[in-house]
Amino acid sequence: MQPASGATIATDNPIDKAIAQLRALNATNHTHLGLKIRIFSGVWAPDWVKSLGGNPVAVVNPQSGQTGTIGRFWTDAFGQAYDRLEILLAAKYDTVPEVRETTISRCTTFYDEPFIRDTTDPATVSALLGAGYTVAADEICQQQEIQASTVWHHTHSDLSFNPYQVIIAVGSTRTDETFTASMMQYCREVLGTACVLENNSLRDPPPVPAYASMYATMTQLGAPIAFQTAAAARLGVLSQVVAYAVSLGADSVELPGGYQSMGTPTSFASDTLLLAGNAAP
Q1: 162-206 pLDDT, tens per residue?
Q2: Could you give the angle at the alpha carbon of 155 between the alpha carbons of 153 and 160, nearest 5°?
Q3: I want to staple 206 with a disulfide (CB 3.0 to 4.6 A). Which of 10, 155, 189, 211 is the partner?
Q4: CA of 155: how far to CAs of 21, 90, 269, in Å?
Q5: CA-based torsion, 215, 216, 220, 221: positive or negative
Q6: Is residue 156 a part of any domain in this protein?
Q7: d(CA 100, CA 145)
Q8: Cis ω for the linkage preceding 205 (within 30 of 0)
């Protein structure tokens, strides 16, 4: 999207192409479909961003074993680059009617999930601490990435929540769902209902009690709420997971890859109506 420091948004980028394709699709089928733009940072950031403030930081995805490098997302230099990208994106796409949602993703590693720190991999924990990472700086990063989305005035901003993975200075780790809940409230305070409360790993039942507590907070704060299911191998029965999302107040569910083998469009029709019924006025 931004191949060099100080550059504008690249022309004919994937977003431009998606808008053109969607307009043709809507015109042909007389539909009004929209786009969700998932902006990745973390391992997907350009090299010039990863090198701000020092060499890129090596990280490992403990789920897949994938390796990569990230920038120092908790630093001011990285934050300024992210803020600039948000300004450029909003200037170009905020008034495009097909663009409905974007994501908040400054403080991320592998996925679009800012509260995940890959803490079950000791090498990643050590690399982050060695690069100057601190919990205090990370918590400021979480606030600032939300503030950066205030440049979007017509487009929702999705923030994916998980029980926050805390890395303590001595290298020990824990989770802090209370901090996650506080950031949900902060997101709504800053962005109002333009903040979509999201989780990208929904399954039934939840993997640990902290997720049930987090989902309860999402339900309490109300729509808009969105989910992406866990991968097909881990989600359980898809129809039950979608029903679970509906019960939590969700108005949107992103289905897993391969969902076509788990049901037809007709089989999801009733769920679509229930999700629409949960949408904020």
Answers
A1: 999 999 998 899 999 999 999 999 999 999 999 999 999 999 888
A2: 120
A3: 211
A4: 20, 9, 26
A5: negative
A6: yes
A7: 19
A8: yes
